[in-house]
Amino acid sequence: KSVDLGGEFSYSSVIVLNRASADKGLNIELYPNPFNNFSTISYELPRDNYSARLSIYDVLGNELKSFELNAASGSLEVGADLMKGLYLVKIEGENEEHQVLRLIKQ
User: Fold this and answer.
1) N or C terminus: fewer CB in 10 A for the chain?
2) The whole model's pTM is what?
3) pLDDT above 70 coverage of the chain, percent
């Protein structure tokens, strides 16, 4: 319903917004975290054929591993070859979207 300054009104057509698909972006989860032997990295991408890359960095910023992701969702097991310490897990997608999480090996 819209009302003009004279008080007259009219109704517009219905507009439907699907928030579930509009809000979906890059998402990563790490578990367990902290971990001892390995950690599972689960990821979700906005859609199939979405270009994304997942990288693991040490605290000095050195890239230790990287994975090209091509499925809309999936998981990776990492950490068996990492030493104890703090790591950063970064997922980068199209349009400069990204997310960074801390990963701790005990």
Assistant:
1) N
2) 0.74
3) 85
